[in-house]
Every structure is written in structure tokens, then in C-alpha cells.
Structure prediction request, 272 residues.
Amino acid sequence: MTSKQIATTLGCRRALAGIVSAWVLSVATATAQVGEYRRDFAVGVNGGYAMSSVRFLPRIPQSQQGGLTAGLTWRYTCEKYFKSICAIVGEVNFVQSGWKENILNSRDEPVAIIDPESGKPIEGTTEEYSRRMNYVQIPVFARLGWGRERKGVQFFFQVGPQISYNLSDSQKANFNLDHPNTLIGGRSSKVVRQYHMPIENRFDYGIAGGLGLEVSLNKVGHILLEGRYYYGLGNIYGNSKRDYFAASNFQNIIVKMSYLFDITRTNNPKIK
Prediction:
């Protein structure tokens, strides 16, 4: 790797160490019971839409690859410290991830498909390529909320580590992957090695964080709407000096709704 890539990797590791330290501190604070005691446990389901991309070095121009996500959620609320409601949240999710390439020429125009017989571009056609990767994701969050707990609205922020495992992957292209259009007037990016590279690292890890609103209805449950961002710290391909890509890590933007119902609740009439 170059000195710039090494500096980027070290910066990511320092950021990870700082975030994990903050997360551990948040969990320790949440479980120290120095505020108003809670023992609320809720479980439920979640579902939403995920927009994914992969940060490649060398760079590959991309747009967001859309997919679905759904899973199970649990939450343990342990304390209210001043006005902050402290909880630990965990999920087990299935998510459709991957990347979708923007295949453009030097004028930012779509690139035509090459006719294999004549070797010339086919007028009115454009090359398209995407890769679908299905993952099981397990995030664990330290959560802080502000507002109502039992009946009303609560704003929340949560952050924590996430691990994932790739179950399957598939490619979709409308051109011959052995002969992409790299002629004059063709692609601005000549990076095409990824078309023939199987996924090397099925295990992924990184940091996720989100902001959201929760509406609680007494004896009904909790409805949550959240926007979340995930930054992967692992790579789907090898990144040693002999490998082609120096980086190939995921980035996800997820919008989801969740429904939780209470299993246990703290017996305290002062909780609103």
C-alpha cells in the first residue's frame, strides 16, 4: 500500500478505537445505575430499505444499490440519568447489500455496449453492472433517548459495533464481462478486475449509528422510525501489497421502522 493508503488505514483504526471506547463508556454508564432505576425489556421486529456502496481503491464510480432489510430487535432500558434514557439495543437482520456501478465516459455520458461481431458500439445501448450481496447483520448499540417512555414521543441516538456474514452474492450485467467497452470514447474508469473476483472475506465488521423518533402507546407498544449509517472497517477483497484493491469496504444508509412490545416494565407510576 502507498503511504496515503497506510495513513487512511491507521486513521480508520484510530477512529474505531475512539468510537469503541466511547461505546464501552456509554454502556458502563448505562449499567452503573447512578440515576433512576429501570428494568424495561422489549422485543419486536424491524424492516426497511438499505442503500449500499463499496469504497474501492482504485476508485470505481457508483450509485447506491437499493435492497430490503428485515429482522428482530431487542432492547433493555436500564436507567434514566437526568433527562437521558439509557438502553442497550441489539438486532439480528437480513439485508440486501452490494454495489451498482456508474459506467460513464470522460464526458460523464453512459457507455455503449460493444457488438462482439463488429467490435463497434451499439447505438442506443448502455452498459449496466451491479452486484447483490446478502448478509446477516448483528449490531449492538448503546442508546440515549430524550422524551416520553410510556406514552408520547421520544428522540433517540444510538451507536455501536456491527458484525456481518455474507450468505450469498450474484452479479447482474447486460454486457459480456470479458469484453467491457474500454475503447476510445468508452469508460472513464478502466477498473474492471472486480467482474471476475469472487468475494474473499465473507465476514465483515464496522461501526453503525443512527437517529430516530419513537412513538410509545400505553398497552400497545413502541413504533420507531430511524435513519442509520454503517461504515465497514473490513474489506470484501484482500488488501495486501500483492492484491489489486487497497480498500473494498462497505457503506450503508438504512431507513427502517420497528415495532417493539414490552416483556417486562419497571413498576414506577412516575414514569411517563
Observations:
- The chain has a mean pLDDT of 87.
- The chain has one domain: 3-264.
